[in-house]
Amino acid sequence: MASNSMGSIFKITTWGESHGKAIGVVIDGCPAGLEIHEDDIHHELNLRSPGKTAYTSPRKENDPCEILSGVFEGKTTGTPISIIIYNKDVDSNKYEPIKNLFRPGHANFTYLEKYGVFDYRGGGRSSARETACRVAAGAVAKKILKHYQIEVVAYLMQVGDLASQVSYSLDLRQKVYGNSIFCPDEGAAESMKLVIAEAKSAGNSLGGIVEFIVPSLPVGFGDPIYEKLEANLAKAMMSLPASKGFEIGAGFQAARMPGSQHNDGFYQENGKVKTTSNYAGGTLGGISTGMPLIGRVVFKPASGIMLPMDTVDLQGKSVEFKLPEGSRHDPCVAIRAVPIVETMVALVLADALLMNRCVRL
């Protein structure tokens, strides 16, 4: 399995499995002199971790991490940064009764067909547990962006059929409910939590949409033709477990709009060129325009549900699949995806920022 890295200059490589001893990430290309501490990484990991509300998996992931290399006296040295996260609350017993069954919606079928082996304990390498490594790297990427006054914001804007009706404005920020980051519309957020609780009680799950915004991004991030900013964002988002769609700006709504509406007109203000609208979502020709970068990621309903489903065993015999009692799963994975989406935006932008410093004298 060779596809464990992303990035060109700011490059990360993750390793480890859901129920192994540890997981981790190696970051290459981080500039020297960046102040970073383990507490910075712990803060980001805590936003992602489950077990703190009724709306996420009860698995406890306190995620004590250690920086093993690349940092000296609180600052990066320019050498590879290695971060390890130990798996603490691991219970593989629940997977023993179902280890010889293809789990509907999961990757054990394709992994077995491709590699001839699959770590059935929590999904192994295909588990969303791997995203903790990305979040650890994202903490470093966010510190780079903060040095240049670039902020990434994301929130859960839709669960099932319930969507926020609040449009984003530059003074609107995420609101945190427990450990879950919902839309800024408090009424919609409460309704979302209610339907998630109902789905969980019924043994079912719901999908959702996470929106991300970068309010202030300089002009020039992204490189045509194959390194367009939105193309790299799309690949980053679609590499996330359970992601099923990506759009930027007006996205799929653009198919319903005439060009006279979708085209963002230009004007000048205080010596800067801006656009009268932002249906493009902050990019033109794959390069950032200086307008807010806005996009959305669609996540499917969690595959791990308590309701019985049809499947086959490893010998092809038809059987009924049912998770063992006490299994731990998220009723809506999009909740915990919010800080992960922020992470992926930060990783792409940190790489684009460093790439952009190389393009002209």
Task: Please summarize what this structure is.
With 361 residues, the protein is α+β, with helices and mostly antiparallel strands.
Description:
The chain is of the alpha+beta class and 361 residues long. It has a single domain (5-356), classed as Chorismate synthase AroC (Chorismate synthase, AroC fold, 4-Layer Sandwich). Helices cover 25% and strands 24% of the residues. The chain is built from 7 helices and 20 strands. The chain has helices at 38-48, 108-115, 131-147, 186-201, 229-238, 259-262, 333-356, and strands at residues 5-6, 11-16, 22-28, 65-69, 71-72, 75-76, 81-86, 153-159, 162-163, 175-177, 180-182, 208-214, 243-248, 266-269, 272-275, 283-284, 287-288, 293-299, 309-312, 318-321. The strands form 7 sheets. A 5-stranded antiparallel beta sheet has the order 1-2-3-7-4, with helices on one face. A 5-stranded antiparallel beta sheet has the order 9-8-12-18-13. Strands 5-6 form a two-stranded antiparallel ribbon. A hairpin with a 2-residue loop joins strand 8 and strand 9. Helix 1 (38-48) crosses helix 3 (131-147), helix 3 (131-147) crosses helix 7 (333-356) and helix 5 (229-238) packs antiparallel against helix 7. The radius of gyration is 21 Å and the shape is globular.
Biggest sheet strand order reads 1-2-3-7-4
Low-confidence segments, given as residue ranges, are 168-180
Query: What's the CATH class label?
Result: Alpha Beta
Compressed to H and E, one letter per element, the order equals: EEEHEEEEHHEEEEHEHEHEEEEEEEH
Estimated structural class? alpha+beta
The strand count comes to 20
For this structure, the CATH topology is: Chorismate synthase, AroC fold
Major pleated sheet: 5 strands, antiparallel
